[in-house]
Fold these 3 entries.
Entry 1:
Amino acid sequence: MHVGLAGPIASADIARLLDPTAAPLPRGYPGAPLLATLIEELIARGHRVTAFTLSSDMPLVGDANIVAQGPHLAVHFVPMRPRAWPFNGHRVGRIVDLYAFERRGLERAMRAAAPDVMHAHWAYEFAWAALRSGIPHVVTCHDAPLVIARMSRGPRHAGYRWLRALMARHVLRRACRVTAVSPYMQAQIDSWCVVPVAVVPNPIDRRAFAIRHKRSPGRARICMVCNGWGERKNPEPALLAFDRLSRSHPGAELVICGRDFGPGERAEQWWRGQGLAGMVEFRGAVCHDDVLALMGECDVLLHPALEESFGVVVAEAMAVGLPIVAGAESGAVPWVVGPWGRLVDVRRPQAMAAALSEVLFATPASAEAVEAARTSILQRFSASAVAIAYEAQYASILAAARADASRLGANQPNHDDAGPEVPRCLRR
C-alpha cells in the first residue's frame, strides 16, 4: 500500500531513513518523533510511504517544495511562514488566515504524490489539507483543542489556540475516519465528530525497549522532560517539589530537557529568582536520542503535566524501566501508567516530593514490577501493534471509498455532460 503521512516531522528524526548522500534538508517541523517511529514501522511492514511536513526555513513561494528520498520513502517539505501573527514579508501571519498558504502547499503536494490513503496527524492544517486533497483519509487527533485553549494565557497565545480549536472543529466535523490516541482523547473529541472515533495509541520507539535502566546504589537522579513553560506543563510545582526533596536528601539531582528549560532560559531564571535549593541541570531542547539516553541514566521520571492526551515520555520511561511519578488526574496519564506508577496530585509540591522520596529511598520498585510495566508498554504501544491497528483503519476507509464509488457509478445518469460525483466520504 502507498501510505501518505502528514504531520510535524523533523529532518533530524528521519535522517536515518533517507539517502545519506542527499543535500542538506530543511529542518522540518520538530516536536513529534513518534511519526518517524510510525514511518519506519510502516516501511518495515512492506508499505511505501510518502510523508508531508512543513518547514519555516524555506522560501515562501508556492513552488519551493523540496523532496527527499530514501528506500521506500519520500518526504515532501512544504514552506511554512515562521511568524503566527506578524507579517512574513508581504504575507500575513499564518494563524490570521488559518494556515491557508501552508494548507494549499500541502494539498498540492498530496495530490501530486497521489497515495492510496492519507493519514494526517493532529486535526489542524495537515488534516485540513488531507481532506481537501480528495484522497481517502484517516485523521489522528493527538491533543484536546478546547483544553489547550482554555489553559492558554496571554491574548496572543490564547487567541492563537482558540483559532486552532476552530480549525480542529472544522476538520473533525468533516473527517470520514478519525482516531484518537487514548480513551481520554476519544471522549474529548467525540461530540465534534460525525463518525465513531477509534482509539489507536501512539507508537513507542523500539530503541526505548533496548535501553535497560540500571540503578546505582545511593544515586537519586530524577529526569523531567517538559516542552514549554506554561500552566498545562505545570513546571513550577515540580521545581518546588524538588526543592523540598533536596532539603531532606541533598544528594538528589534533577535533569530537565525541553524548550524553555535550557541554560539561562525561562525555567532556570525562575529557579534562581526563587532562591531554591538543590542540584538542577537545565539541558534544554535536545534530540530524541538524547532523551532516551538520559532516561537510561536516571532513577525516576517526574512528569508534572496537568493534562496529556497520551504521554509518550511516560510510556518511553516505563519501557526503559524507570519508576514514574505523575498526575492522578492528568488526562490519559493514568491509562498509560496503569498500576505501575505513583500517581499523585501534581498541583501539590509536597505530594510530588513525598512520592519521589518513597520511590527513591523507601520502597523502590521491584524487578518484577519494572518488568511487568515494560511488558505492558510493549504489548499495548509497540510500533508493530500500532501499525497493525492503523493498517486496519486504512483498509476500512479504502473499502468504504471503493463501495461509495461503485454505488455512485451504478446510479450515475447516462448523460455525456455528467461529470463523476465525488464519493460521500470524500466530499468537502
Entry 2:
Amino acid sequence: MLNARISAVLAFGIIGGCTPQVTAQQADSPQSANAPVSTALTCGEFLPLIRSHDKIVGLAIQWLDGYYSGRAGLTELPAGWMITVSQGIGGTCTINVNASRTVLDVIAQLHREYGK
C-alpha cells in the first residue's frame, strides 16, 4: 500500500515536468485547493500554508517530496516516511533563520539524514 502511494507521488512529480507554483497569498484564496506548488517554495512562504485551513500543506509536502524523490532516483522510502518528512519540514521551517531556505533543500537534508 505504501509503495503504491509513493509510486503515485513519484509519478505525479515526474510526469510532464510539473513545476507548479504556490504563494502564501494563493493559500488564502478560494481556489487554493488547486493551487500549484513551487519547487522554489521557501520556509517563509511555507509557514502560512501550515496555518491555512484548506489543508494544502499536506499536498505541498507530498508533491515536493515526490518531486525530490523522482529527481534523486529514489524508488522506495522507509515506512512512515511521510510523517518523518512532515515533522522535519515543520520543525526546520519554523526556525526563523531558515525563512529563506527552500523546502526542497530541507527535504534533501531529511533524505540524507533519515532516508535510505
Entry 3:
Amino acid sequence: MSESLKRKVEKISRLLERLVAESAKGTSIVVEGQNDVDALRELDVKGEVIAVKNYGMVFPDVVSQVESRGKREVILLLDFDSYGKEWTKRLAESLERLRIKPNLLFWNSLLGLVGRDVKDVEGLASYIETLREKCGE
C-alpha cells in the first residue's frame, strides 16, 4: 500500500511542479476563493491567481475579470465538488467563445488523483502533507 501511496504523492508533486512552472511563465490561474489562493501560495505558486468568489462576483463578472487580463490561456482550478465542476464547465465554454484557452489539464489530473479525498483546492496542501507522513517522508 505504501508503494502506491508513494506513486500517488510523486504524481501529485510532479503535477504541482508543472503548475508552479506554468504560473511562473505568466499563465493566470482561476480558483474559487481566497483560501484557494492561499493554498496555492503555500504550494509555491507565485504568479497571478484570480479568485472568482471575491467581492461577490456573479458569473458574467468572472468572465469579464478573466477577459480583462488579456491572456490567451488561463488555468481553471476550481473546486472538485459539484459547484466547482459546474463552474469549471461554464467558465471553460464562456472563455472558449472569447478565444481564451481554458487549460483544464491540472484540474482534470488532480480530480483523477484526489477527487474522492479532496473537495477543494484549499485542501490540497494538507492532503499532500498527510500522504507524505503516511509514506514516511
